[in-house]
Amino acid sequence: MAADTSPDDDVPSGAPAVRVRAFTLTSGRTTPRVDLPVEATLRRLGAATAGPVESHLTRILEVCDRRSVAEVSALVAMPIGVVRVLLADLVELGQVRVQTTIQEDSSFAERRELIERTLRGLRTL
Amino acid sequence: MDYARSSDQRTAASTKIVVAGGFGVGKTTLVGTVSEIMPLRTEALVTNQSEGIDDLAAVPSKGTTTVAMDFGRITLGEDLVLYLFGTPGQRRFWFMWDDLCLGAIGAIVLVDTERLDEAFSPLDYFEQRGLPFIVAVNQFEDAATYPLEDVAAALALSPGVPVIRIDARRRESVKEALVRVTEFSLERLSAAVGA
Description:
The complex is a heterodimer of chains A (125) and B (195).
Chain A lengths: L15 H6 L20 E3 L10 H10 L4 H8 L3 H13 L3 E3 L9 H16 L2
Antiparallel strand pairs in A: 1-2
Helix pairs in contact in A: 2-3, 3-4
Chain B lengths: L13 E8 L5 H8 L5 E8 L16 E12 L5 E8 L5 H8 L4 E6 L8 H10 L3 E6 L9 H7 L8 E4 L4 H22 L3
C-alpha cells in the first residue's frame, strides 16, 4: 500500500494495476464463500488442524488473530475484496474462525444487547 | 417478550460506527482522536462496471481505481471491539456503503458549516437505508458559529435527528458524539419494535 497517510485523503491513490493483479492471488475469484463483514474479528485456530498453506495466506494468518477483516486488509496491504476471498479460504481450511457480528438476520434481542453493551463501554472510556 | 439472553443468542464480538462527510471535514481526525491504534487505511477496488461482476480475472486495469477508507479501533471491555470507519461522502462511493452500513450501530455525518452541501449525499443515503444517524458540526476555529437549529433546517433534517457541535480533535467531544449516536440507535430500535 502507498505510504500516503495524509488526513482525509479519501480519493484514489497509487497504482491501480498492482492492486488489480492482487486478484490473481484468488485465481480471479472476487466473491468469498464465507460472510465476512469489514468489522468481523478473526481467531486463528490451532496450527495442528491443517497442513501448510501458501505464502500469501501465511501473511494473513500471521496478522489475523483478534483483528478485523479491515485491519488485516490494511496490514497486509491488499484490497479488502481480495482479503475477504483469502480469509474465506482459510476458514474453509479450518485455520481461521470468524467471530460473531450483527447480521441482517440478527434478532432484536441481539441488536439491543450489542448496542447496550457498546453504550456501557463508551460511557466508561 | 423475554429478552434475557438465551443459549442460542449469538453475542457479537465486534461492531462498527460509520463516520461520513465531505473531503477534509475531519473524519480521519475524529477517528484518530479516539482510536487506540493509529488510524489504518484499507482500500477497495472500484471498477466502472461494479455491478454484477464476480470474476475480475480478465478485467484490465483500465477503468479500475481504488478508494481508501481510514478506520480506527476502540476496545470496549474484554469481549467487544468497536471499529470506526471514515468514509468519503460523494455519491459515487455509495456502492461501498452498503457493505459498511450493514450491521452498523449508526452513523455520524460530520459537517463543515461552510460546505453544508457535502452532507446531502450521506444524509440521503442513511435516510433511504434507515440507518440511525446524527449530524455533528465540526466546529472549525475560524468558521462562523451557526445555531444548530439553523443547521438542521438548512440540511432539511427529519424531526428528531440529533444535531450536535463537536471538536473532532478533542477526545471527550468525540466520545460524546459516539455516545449520542449509540443512544439514538437504541431509541430508534426500541421505537421500531414498539418496546
